[in-house]
Structures are given as structure tokens and as C-alpha cells.
Specification:
The complex is a heterodimer of chains A (222) and B (216). Chain A is mainly alpha-helical and 222 residues long. Chain A has one domain: MetI-like fold. Helices cover 79% and strands 0% of the residues of chain A.
Chain lengths: 222, 216
């Protein structure tokens, strides 16, 4: 007897899935914002002259980039209560995403800042620009332009990684799908359908990022 | 609260064995199919080219966890009875082939066009042009990114734990549930992954620096 595919159960519970997809996007946006914050602050400590700031930052980046997100999220999930911090799974998931994404963001942003030639900054100062003007027009904007492709593809990776947050039962697309699966036993249909939802989310993000890049970086380079 | 003794550590090492095996199978199988994906992406045949692009877009645009789920339950639907590890290994192979295919496409396209033209002028046919002229140079350029992906793959095998496959992370969850020492266990698990991945990362980074220097 062959198995008959039945996507009816998915269709019935589509509203539930779409709501969960919004939560996935929410997790991703929160994770991206905090990761960028950690990235900017981390570049300051990573390039600091004080080894007391620099070495812990390097260690943080290396440890996070060379261990799986699943282990990180479990560690944070069990570590926080030991320090008396009790957070719900969603808040824990956001912290884990921010820490993970932050480590990658530090390296990406550092690459961008280092790509600005010293001569450019000196030329700006020689032309009589203020330090703030030099930072804004000569360091920040070109650096942002240089890192934009790798930073945004890292953001998309982070969005896809939110699915792992199901392991601590955070409310997002995959955990809701797992619940529907255990109600209906239609494993393949459920996971195939939410794979398409993830594909749509990452596709939309890619389109959005490329539209923003056209808007911001359409000025000529030379 | 139970302590973490020799038995628990041995159990973790059993899990580590599967983590390494999954990563190795995924990398080898992914390398083989990935070469096909890369060649389809640089071919002039429109259908092949589009199929390769779609394949990469799907695998890079969906979570690895979903790929595991879909392949795992999809194989079950086909009516073939395979071990869990085979289903998981197939999923990692497909995943790796898309990412390696995209990395190597970049490598192939960064080899100057004159090389292909010279090969053609010398009368080399497609296979020998690729095998003897283009691919050796392309692989050298893409080696740092390839190693970088291997690190991603080793870390990615941890998601097999969510499907219920007992590799290092799942072994860690089991030991953690038995001993009630989650922090200690996950610190050990993290340290093992780090010991596996960090040398690879350093190797990749040093190779990237060397390549950057020789390019100048």
C-alpha cells in the first residue's frame, strides 16, 4: 500500500504557521540588530591597544565561530539560571542568536574598517574636514559599502539558524511545525511546506537587501 | 547529582566518532556531487546552468535543519527502509554539494579566460581542459573557502541530534539528562567541537594569507 501525500492538514493550520513565521522574522530581526551592536562594540575592543580588551574579544570570536550554534544555545539556556537569570525560551534564543551573529559581525566589520587606507583619512584631515566628518564620509560609508554583501549574507544565515531555536522550544516556525507534526503524523508534508516558507523568507530578505544596496550605494566609486 | 566518569566520556567519544563520520561522508559525497554542480554552473548549456543555480538557491535559502527533516522523512515515504545514519548522510551530502558547488564555481570563474582559450587552441577536449588546466588552478584558489565550509559542516552535523541521531551533541544531551550537569557537559562538548574546528580554521586562514601574498 503506497503512502498518499496529504497537504490538507498543512492548509488547515496555515494561519498558525504564518503567525509562527512572523515570530521567526521577529527573532531574526532582534538577533540581527543586537549582533550588529555587538559587532560594532567588538571591533572597538578587538582593535584596541589594550590587550586586556583585545585578547578576550579574539577568544570570544574564535570560540563562537568554532562551536555549533546548537551547543551554544544549550549552554546559554542552562547557564543563565545558574546566575539567577530566568528568561523565557524566546529571550534566551534572541541572546544566543545575538552572541552567535555578533562574533561573525565583529570579523566582518573589522575587515571593512581595515580596508580603509590610512592615506584616505589623512587626506580628509588635510582638506580641513572635521574628525566627525572624516569618520562619517571617509571611514563609515565606504566601510559599510565594503562589508554590505558579507554582512547581509550573514544575516540571511542567521535567519535560517533561528530554526535551531526549536531545540529549547522557543516559539518560532520550526517548533510550531514540530507540534503540528506530532498532532497529525504528516511529517513530510509539514516540513516540506515550512521549507517553502523559509525559502520565501530568505528570498524576500535577499530582494530587500539588494534594493537597499541600490538605494544607498549607487554613487560612483571613482 | 551524578558525576561525569569514564563511562560518560567514552559515550561522548562514541558520539564524536559519528560526528566525524558524518562530516567525512558529507564532505566526500558533497565534493563529488559538488563538482558536478560547479561544472553545471559554468556550462554554456542553459538548462544545466539554470538547474545548478536553482539547486544552489534552494539549499542556501533554507535551513539545514529543514533539509535534514525533509530528506529524512522523504526517504521514508519512498518505501525504502534505510538506517537513520544513511538518511542523515544523504542530507549532508546534498547540503554540502550545493555549498561546495557554489564555492568552486567562484574558483573556476576566477581562472583567467585565456587559459580556456589556450586549451581550446591546443586542441584539448573538455575533459582534459577541465581536469588538467582549469580545475587544478580553481581548486587552489578555492581551498580556503573549502576549508571554511568543512568547519561549517562539522558544526552542522550537530543538527542531526534534533532528528534523534546520536552524534556528539545528542550524546551530550543524553549524558546531561543522566548526570544533571548540563553546564559541565556542554562545556566539554563545546571544547571537543572547538578542538576539531579551530585547527581547520587556522589552517584555512593561513592559506588565505599565503594566497593573498602570492597574488600580489
Amino acid at each position: 500500500m503506497g503512502y498518499v501525500l496529504d497537504f490538507g492538514v498543512v492548509y488547515e493550520r496555515l494561519p498558525e504557521l504564518l503567525l509562527a513565521a512572523l515570530s521567526t522574522i521577529g527573532l531574526a530581526v532582534a538577533g540581527m540588530s543586537l549582533a550588529t551592536l555587538i559587532g560594532v562594540l567588538g571591533v572597538l575592543t578587538r582593535t584596541s591597544k589594550s590587550s586586556l580588551l583585545r585578547i578576550p574579544t579574539i577568544a570570544f570570536v574564535e570560540v563562537i565561530r568554532n562551536t555549533p550554534f546548537l551547543v551554544q544555545i544549550f549552554f546559554i539556556f542552562f547557564a543563565l539560571p545558574q546566575f539567577g537569570i530566568r528568561l523565557n525560551p524566546t529571550a534566551t534564543a534572541i541572546i544566543a542568536l545575538a552572541v552567535n551573529g555578533g562574533a561573525y559581525a565583529i570579523e566582518i566589520i573589522r575587515g571593512g574598517v581595515e580596508s580603509i587606507g590610512k592615506g584616505q583619512i589623512e587626506a580628509g584631515l588635510a582638506l580641513g574636514l572635521h574628525k566627525a566628518q572624516v569618520f562619517r564620509h571617509i571611514v563609515l560609508k565606504p566601510a559599510f559599502r565594503a562589508i554590505y554583501p558579507s554582512l547581509t549574507s550573514q544575516f540571511i544565515m542567521l535567519t535560517l539558524t533561528t530554526s535551531v531555536c526549536t531545540s529549547i522550544a522557543a516559539y518560532e516556525l520550526t517548533s510550531v511545525a514540530q507540534r503540528i507534526e506530532s498532532d497529525t503524523f504528516r511529517s513530510f508534508e509539514v516540513y516540506f511546506s515550512i521549507t517553502l516558507i523559509y525559502l520565501a523568507i530568505s528570498g524576500l530578505m535577499m530582494a530587500l537587501f539588494s534594493a537597499i544596496s541600490k538605494l544607498l550605494f549607487s554613487y560612483p566609486v571613482r | 547529582m551524578a558525576s561525569i566518569g569514564v563511562n560518560e566520556l567514552l559515550f561522548l567519544l562514541q558520539g564524536l566518532k559519528w560526528t566525524i563520520a558524518l562530516a567525512a561522508i558529507g564532505f566526500a559525497g558533497g565534493g563529488l556531487f559538488g563538482l558536478g554542480v560547479a561544472l553545471s554552473r559554468v556550462s554554456t548549456h542553459a538548462v544545466l546552468w539554470r538547474a545548478g543555480a536553482a539547486y544552489i538557491a534552494v539549499f542556501q535559502g533554507t535551513p539545514l535543519l529543514m533539509q535534514l527533516f525533509v530528506v529524512y522523512y522523504g526517504i521514508g515515504l519512498l518505501g525504502v527502509n534505510v538506517d537513520a545514519w544513511i538518511a542523515v548522510a544523504i542530507a549532508f551530502t546534498l547540503h554540502a554539494s550545493a555549498f561546495l558547488g557554489e564555492i568552486w564555481r567562484g574558483g573556476i570563474q576566477s581562472v583567467p579566460k585565456g587559459q580556456t582559450e589556450a586549451g581550446k587552441a591546443l586542441g584539448l577536449h573538455y575533459v582534459s581542459r577541465m581536469k588538467d588546466v582549469i580545475l587544478p588552478q580553481a581548486l587552489k584558489i578555492s581551498l580556503p573557502a573549502t576549508i571554511g565550509f568543512l568547519v561549517q559542516l562539522v558544526k552542522g552535523t550537530s543538527l542531526a541530534a534534533i532528528v534523534g541521531f546520536v552524534e556528539l551533541s545528542r550524546a551530550g544531551q543524553i549524558v546531561s539528562n543522566q548526570t544533571f550537569r548540563p553546564l559541565m557537559v556542554f562545556a566539554i562538548i563545546g571544547a571537543i567541537y572547538f578542538a576539531l574546528c579551530w585547527p581547520l580554521s587556522l589552517w584555512g586562514a593561513s592559506m588565505e594569507r599565503r594566497l593573498a601574498k602570492s597574488a600580489r
